[in-house]
Amino acid sequence: MVKPSTPDAVARRRFVAVAAVLGWAGLSIQLYLILYSRWSLEASLLGGLLSFFSYFTVLTNTLVATVLTCEWTSRESAARRWFLQPWVSSGIAVSIAVVGLAYSLLLRHLWHPEGWQFLADELMHDVMPLLFLVYWWCCVPKGTLRVGHIGRWVIYPLVYFAYSLLRGHELAVYPYPFIDVDKLGYPQVFVNAAGLLAGFVLISLLVIGLDRWLGRRAKVSG
After folding, report:
1. DSSP alpha helices (H): ranges in 41-104?
2. Whole-number Å distance between alpha carbons of 180 and 56
3. What is the tens place of the pLDDT at every residue in 184-219?
4. In the chain, domain spans
5. How far is Cα 218 from Cα 222, in angstroms, rounded to an integer?
6. Which of 21, 82, 92, 180 could cross-link with 174 by S-S, CB 3.0 to 4.6 Å?
7. How far apart are CA 192 and CA 190, in angstroms?
8. Are 125 and 103 within 8 A, CB to CB?
9. Are 196 and 101 in contact (CB under 8 A)?
10. Confidence (pLDDT) at 74
11. Percent of the chain having pLDDT more than 70?
12. HSE of 82, CA atoms in CB hemisphere, 13 A
């Protein structure tokens, strides 16, 4: 937890506050756009809500905004203690890094959003990954991560992948083109998923390496 007892700590707390507000702002804008679109088409708003939470980007940004809010506030709770554990925050950092990289490499060229959609897109895919990685670097205690934590972290994307395939099979709607079974077939989808999972593991190893390096440096300087 960031304690505002020094000028540096105050600056960090302000940074966390701004990052948390931007995180929830991006999610709120995106939710409004989806619900407004559904309302305009006289479609189910509940269906729009379910569609909103079918995206890995949205789920991960929600986790990011939750961690930042827990860091910003001081009210103790079991949920707050859980989210602020270094291995939990670090796992979320890996996931949001994957969101930013996957979007830039695989999805950005497929569409060109404008107006409020552009703002929501930038916040969730560019701004929040960068801000949360800065938060992880500056505010999350270092030196506690182990390679074994990767086994816990990969549960999240694996469960999401299984859910997306099941939902896509039932509704014939897939949240991302690289897991669209109807167009690509299961073999190619699993190859794509394996590539993304490999990238997830590589980023996880990088985060663990940085955690150990920063932990050793903190001990030496302390």
Report:
1. 45-52, 56-72, 78-83, 86-102
2. 14
3. 999 999 999 999 999 999 999 999 999 999 999 888
4. 7-221
5. 6
6. 180
7. 5
8. yes
9. no
10. 83
11. 97
12. 5
pLDDT for 77 equals 93
Helix axes 7-40, 45-52, angle to 10 degrees: 140
Q: How far apart are CA 31 and CA 77, in angstroms?
A: 27
pLDDT over 60 at 4, yes or no: no
- The Cα–Cα gap between 110 and 130 comes to 22
DSSP sequence for 33-54:
HHHHHHHHTT--HHHHHHHHTT
**pLDDT value at residue 2:** 44
Cβ atoms of residues 127 and 22 within 8 Å: yes
Helix (H) or strand (E) holding 208: helix 186-221
Measured N-to-C along each axis, helices 128-139 and 56-72 cross at an angle, to the nearest 10 degrees, of: 40
> Model confidence over 78-128: pLDDT tens digits?
999 999 999 999 999 999 999 999 999 999 999 999 999 999 999 999 999
Could you tell me the pLDDT band of residue 15, with boundaries at 50, 70 and 90?
Answer: very high
Rg of the chain, C-alpha, whole Å: 19
Question: The whole model's pTM is what?
Answer: 0.94
Q: How many CB atoms lie within 10 A of CB 148?
A: 9
Q: Of 137, 124, 153, give the one whose Cα is nearest residue 62.
A: 124
Burial of 163 (0-12, 13-18, 19+ CB in 10 A): middle
Q: Which residue has the tokens 């991006």?
A: 26
> How high is the pLDDT of residue 219?
80
